[in-house]
Amino acid sequence: MSEQSYDVVVIGAGPGGYVAAIRAAQLGLKTACIEKRPTLGGTCLNVGCIPSKALLQSSEKFEEAKHHLSAFGVVVGEARVDLPALMAHKTQVVKANTQGVEYLFRKNKIDWLKGHGRLTSPTSIAIDGPDGSQTVTAKSIIVATGSDVMPLPGVAIDEKRIVSSTGSLALETIPKRLVVIGGGYIGLEMGSVWRRLGAQVTVVEFLDRILAGMDGDVAKQMQRILTKQGMTFKLQTKVTAATSTDSGVTLTMEPAAGGDTQTLDADVVLVAIGRRPYTDNLGLEATGVALTERRRIKTDSHFRTSVPSIYAIGDVIDGPMLAHKAEDEGAVVAEIIAGQSGHINYDAIPGVVYTTPEVAQVGKTEEQLKEAGVAYRVGKFPYTANGRARAMNATDGFVKLLADAKTDRLLGGHIVGADAGHMIAELGLAMEFGASAEDVARTSHAHPTLSEIVREAALAVDGRPLHM
Less Cβ crowding at N or C end of the chain, within 10 Å? Predict the structure, then answer.
């Protein structure tokens, strides 16, 4: 047994953990990061955000070549899918990103401690690694272990026929029939990938809508668009069991409110009903770290747990399970530990669904404002009225802004359409600085760009759009 001492030790090298480690090292703190995977980057870089976007991009290119390039006067031969090459591109993208984090660790002199970390006291961690066991101590410990796939009772994931998001990134053949259980971010993104590559995709959702938590107008529009693209939706439906054979899977379902059972056959089933915090086997409770009923770690406004030397960030604490939310928290908690002040405006953290078209939002939804009794005004502008969108043949979607009825301060921004994930940044910045809809409307936007739709929506809040 060997023992090392640090100022800061981070448990978990996902986006929150590795950013926390880098920022702590930048601030002059002796830092180590514990990670049990053979590569850094956590779920996001290895089996989440990054590989899924590589597959999304590849499938979009295929569909563009097969169905859309001719409309631009570009004629190509018959497009086909080379699945091994497509997967090789994904693997190379993942490798480049994870190696990039390794480089940043070396650059910032961060020790990568390989293995599973478990708290043994408020300042010590036991690590079981490939090269044996060791114990390290730290003045401050940051728990950034992320989240894992939420299981569904009666549906056993084998990563072959019944897959999680991880398995959906590594299918060896294109399924003829794919059933996605869950109509959220992950299910719709991965369903879109395999739909474009040739699968018949059915989305089964327990609720009466897809994209729970997003603005109702956005959810309705996206369901219409995805239905037009070929997806089938079974809403208010509960999956109760799955029977897997060598040839496929049979799902047993019933109405969410109760009723007669029905079955649905598939070649592959993707379980995408959400994620749960990874807080087991970390020694949290034995060390005195308090958890919520949903097994998230309780923290104060400075990310400190019930044990003063232990902090927590990312998916293991309250808030949306988003990589960029974890990154922001990682940087801030390192600054707090170093004696600086830190701040995160959670109302200005965007969420993006990388379907085609993309969906993005920041701030409050219309439903949330109604529930809170906040008086607001709505400005909405469609992609169809934008010159650049027409030139791109990307006219599906709209921008919707919500502003306080009295002060005109922006309260929420919602986009369905091409490049929504990029365009939402303008609205996040505007909200961070407390901007009004008029501030956005009076800011010059380059012509012709899709960002002009944002400006027109801001003008529409005051009932004066110029191009509609």
Answer: N
Cα angle 94, 97, 98 (rounded to 5 degrees) comes to 85
CA distance 34 to 117: 6
Residues shown for the chain: 468
Q: Where are the alpha helices (DSSP H) in 108-245?
A: 165-168, 185-197, 216-229
pLDDT in tens, 61-117: 999 999 999 999 999 999 999 999 999 999 999 999 999 999 999 999 999 999 999
Give CA separation, 161 vs 87, 192, 267, 273, 299, in Å. 18, 18, 7, 17, 39
Nearest to 365 by CA among 251, 154, 214: 214
Whole-number Å distance between alpha carbons of 188 and 204 = 11
pLDDT at 418: 98
Structural domains in the chain, sorted by start = 3-148+276-344 (3.50.50.60), 162-273 (3.50.50.60), 348-461 (3.30.390.30)
Cα–Cα distance, 116 to 126 (Å, whole number): 8
Question: Residue 207, Cα to own-chain centre: how many angstroms?
Answer: 20
Give the pLDDT score at 3. Answer: 74
Segment 348-369 shows an average pLDDT of: 98
**Structure token digits, residue 389:** 């969108």
Residue 131 has a pLDDT of 87
Question: If you average pLDDT over residues 181-208, what whole number do you get?
Answer: 98
Q: Are strands 268-271 and 275-277 parallel, antiparallel or unpaired?
A: unpaired
Q: What does the mean pLDDT of the chain come to? A: 97
- pLDDT (0 to 100) of residue 332: 98
d(CA 275, CA 240): 19
DSSP 323: H
* Helix 185-197 with 216-229: angle, nearest 10 deg: 20
Number of H-type helices and E-type strands within the chain: 14, 22
Catalytic positions are: 447
pLDDT, position 1: 45
Compute the distance between CA of residue 170 and CA of residue 434 in angstroms, rounded to an integer. Answer: 43
Q: What is the pLDDT of residue 2?
A: 53
Put simply, whether the predicted model's pTM sits higher than 0.90 gets the answer: yes
Please give the structure tokens belonging to residue 428.
Answer: 């996040």
Structure token pair of residue 133? 């066991």
